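Note on ligand handling. Small-molecule inputs were canonicalized before submission; formal charges were left as drawn, and no protonation-state enumeration was performed. Where a ligand contained multiple stereocentres, the stereochemistry in the source SMILES was retained. For S-adenosylmethionine, this procedure yielded the string shown in the input block below.
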Amino acid sequence: MASSSRTIVDQKDYDLFKNLSSNWWNNPDMKLLRSTCNLFVPYICEKIQESYENKPLHSLRILEVGCAGGFLTEGLAQAGCNVVAIDVNKELIEIAKAHLDLDSSLPKIIYLTESIEEHCIENRQKYDVVLSNFVLEHVDEHDYFIKCCSDCLKPSGLLFISTIAKTFWSWICTIVLLEYILGIVPLGAHDYYKYINASDAECIIRSYGFAIKNTRGIFCNLLNKTSFFVPTNAFAYIIFAARNAE
Ligand SMILES: C[S@@+](CC[C@H](N)C(=O)[O-])C[C@H]1O[C@@H](n2cnc3c(N)ncnc32)[C@H](O)[C@@H]1O
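Structure output:
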């Protein structure tokens, strides 16, 4: 692991994810996150193929940052992507590796216990695509996190970042309902002050030389724990950006 002088990992979040790790794939409360990953896989693959003129997905180097137990990673691998997936949480990477071993039909995935701030030191301009799915709302410094993701991309690479908006409605849904009323997510799992609106995240992404190609709002039905795209970014969203694009 490369040494890094700067870390943006929150110790409280590290412990929270460590505690969730043993039951990651069997926890019914994770259905919401899995449903969002299932929604994103075809969207992400379609955007990658459009941008790289239908190059085979396996020929592109894809980095997933903050892969946790591997919901999105496995979905992408099943769709034919060649993925390196990193997470700072050692316990979750072990769970992701163990789950991958259960299914011999899955293509190889490289899982590494590493933060993005460590990974970017020795992997500058290495990847065609960098993805981060619901990680930004867990990091202390949005700008530095996005910079580290951007550093790992080739000059014409693609970036996908999803996170939770900083609005009254997202607070009601993700903290009041999910944590306090329904108990689907442990208390303290989300920190409203780390949420960021799509326009602010887009602004940071643009400052690293990207053009925003598409931003899609997401909403979740908390009763049946399914996610779908909506025409507002007021709850959560995924940003798709490309460097050197007009
Ligand atoms: C909500 S989970 C992500 C879910 C996952 N992307 C998925 O699609 O299933 C957030 C993850 O981000 C990881 N994380 C937080 N800060 C990180 C950093 N700076 N570098 C790498 N991983 C990080 C946490 O350890 C945690 O596993």
